[in-house]
Specification:
By secondary structure, this protein is an alpha/beta fold. The protein has 15 helices and twelve strands. It binds pyridoxal-5'-phosphate. The site of pyridoxal-5'-phosphate has 15 residues, from helix 3.
Length: 415
């Protein structure tokens, strides 16, 4: 089982990002962790080995990445998986038929699909609640509840769960508190510090940050829980391959730098969008107009680059999505490059339409993953793509004084 190097925990976040979990390689002293492309390890004699037997169980590249993320989250044990969904599926194997899970209602579409289309048929039951209101979480708990699972901020509606309050509710029920921290990254939010038992990520997103691999990672502090996860990790086998682990490990070295720039760009683009389409149509937790901004400030140290915008109709959304040139129309998020998508037809297509409508994931909602390009180019791109927007005046305010004012501030605003 991979355990952080305790001495790494004394360092600041940037130092951990670059060094935690990694020690010079013993053969030549390579400063970068090698990619251990091997399926098995030669044993010195029967029953004697260097601690490595077969690569599903352990791989040194994967271990370095697991230790690194565990240190970044402030936890003790990390487990790297082949995808975010593979990670969640393995976490859910901690439970058995008959167990009940309370789940935030606005989770990634694939999370809902896994629960609704697969795990429900294996005997787990789920209650979906608006976890912005901790009381609703408490009300959904039953004697069979074994876990409370939330995403915060949520994908794509940027809703926030009060981590400390929900941790207490879960623990009062002897249930595990599981948090998907993909949107915030450990640079801005560390759920274990608020009482979460398991924090997990799609490493495909901010942790890797370069859109060149798919992966997942879970971090826990409790040794017994880690032993159970370790068993599932090896027994179910959805482990990260060494090259993907290496790519993700290279990504985390710049996590702090990238997140600061995502945040700077996100704040400026959100401010511009407010002037362009109105605060009521812009979902960005860094805006003081976001209804949960104060809670976000209490449990996060920054807000990142994820913004959703209500444009009022599919036609208007398509107008913008089909005209962007610097933003790319694509699923996923968290890479250095800016992406734009329509959750209803893309990331959340697996959520039934009536459920999407009830949540507010409309056909006119678009999601921006603001990358780390020059923010002036990103805003100019949105500006040109919005020109001639059908029904101008219904949601968008048109190019007026507001957008000119926003453009004047580009490059000067600071978080
Ligand atoms: C918040 C969140 N969690 C989990 C996942 C699933 O991760 P993966 O695509 O790496 O399987 C995603 C994917 O978009 C996501 O956005």
């Amino acid at each position: 089982m991979t355990r952080v190097f305790d001495e790494d925990l004394a360092a600041g976040f940037g130092t951990r990002a670059i060094h935690a979990g990694q020690r010079p390689e013993p053969l030549a002293g390579a400063i970068m962790t090698p990619v251990y492309l091997t399926s098995t390890y030669v044993q010195e004699a029967l029953g004697q080995n260097k601690g490595y037997e077969y690569a599903r169980g352990k791989n040194p590249t994967r271990e370095a990445f697991e230790r690194n993320v565990a240190a970044l989250e402030g936890g003790r044990h990390g487990f790297a998986f082949s995808s975010g969904m593979g990670c969640l599926d393995s976490i859910m194997k901690l439970f058995k038929a008959g167990d009940h899970i309370v789940c935030g209602e606005n989770v990634y579409g694939g999370t809902f699909r896994l629960f609704d289309k697969i795990l429900q048929h294996l005997g787990l039951s789920f209650s979906y609640v608006d976890s912005r209101d901790s009381q609703r979480v408490a009300d959904a708990v039953t004697p069979l509840t074994r876990a409370v699972l939330v995403e915060t901020p949520t994908n794509p509606l940027m809703r926030i769960t009060d981590l400390a309050a929900v941790a207490e509710i879960a623990h009062r029920a002897n249930a595990l508190f599981v948090v998907d921290n993909t949107f915030a990254s450990p640079y801005f939010q560390r759920p274990l510090e608020f009482g979460a038992d398991i924090v997990y990520h799609s490493t495909t997103k901010y942790l890797n940050g370069h859109s060149d691999m798919v992966g997942g990672v879970a971090v826990v502090t409790d040794d017994r829980l880690a032993e159970r996860l370790q068993f599932i990790h090896n027994a179910a086998g959805a482990v990260a391959g060494p090259f993907d682990a290496w790519l993700a490990l290279r990504g985390t070295k710049t996590l702090h730098l990238r997140m600061r720039q995502h945040d700077t760009n996100g704040r400026q683009i959100a401010t511009w969008l407010v002037e362009r389409v109105g605060a009521e149509n812009v979902y960005y937790i860094g805006l003081p107009t976001h209804p949960q901004h104060d809670l976000a400030r209490r449990q996060m140290t920054g807000f990142g680059g994820m913004i959703s915008v209500e444009l009022g109709s599919r036609e208007r959304a398509a107008h913008l999505l089909n005209r962007v040139r610097v933003f790319s129309l694509a699923e996923s998020l968290g890479g250095v490059e800016s992406l734009i998508s329509q959750p209803a037809g893309m990331t959340h297509a697996s959520v039934p339409p009536e459920r999407r409508a009830a949540l507010g994931i409309t056909e006119g909602l678009i999601r921006l993953s603001c990358g780390v390009e020059d923010v002036g180019d990103l805003i100019a791109d949105l500006e040109q793509a919005m020109q001639g927007m059908p029904g101008e005046g219904r949601g968008a305010r048109g190019e007026g004084q507001g957008s000119r004012r926003a453009r004047d501030t580009i490059g000067t605003a600071r978080p």
